[in-house]
Amino acid sequence: MTVRGAIRNAAKHLVLGMHGSVLHEALYLGRRMGAPHEIDDCIDKFSKSERMSQDARKRLRHSIQRDMRTHLIIPAEYFLYDFPSKSEAQKREFVGDMERTVLCARMYNSVPEGMVFMDKMKTYQVFSAFFQREVIEVRASTDFESYKAFATRHGAYMVKPPASSRGEGIHKAEAPHDDKGLREAFEALMQEAPVVLEELIDQGEDMARLHPQSVNTVRYATYCEGDRITTLCCFVKIGCGSSVVDNGGAGGFLAAVDEDTGVVTTPGRTEFGKTVDVHPDTGVGIVGYQMPQWDELKKIVSQLVRVLPQQKYVGWDLAFSGTKGWVLVEGNSGGQFVGPQISTGKGIRPLVQATFGSL
Question: What is the pTM of this model?
Answer without folding.
Answer: 0.86
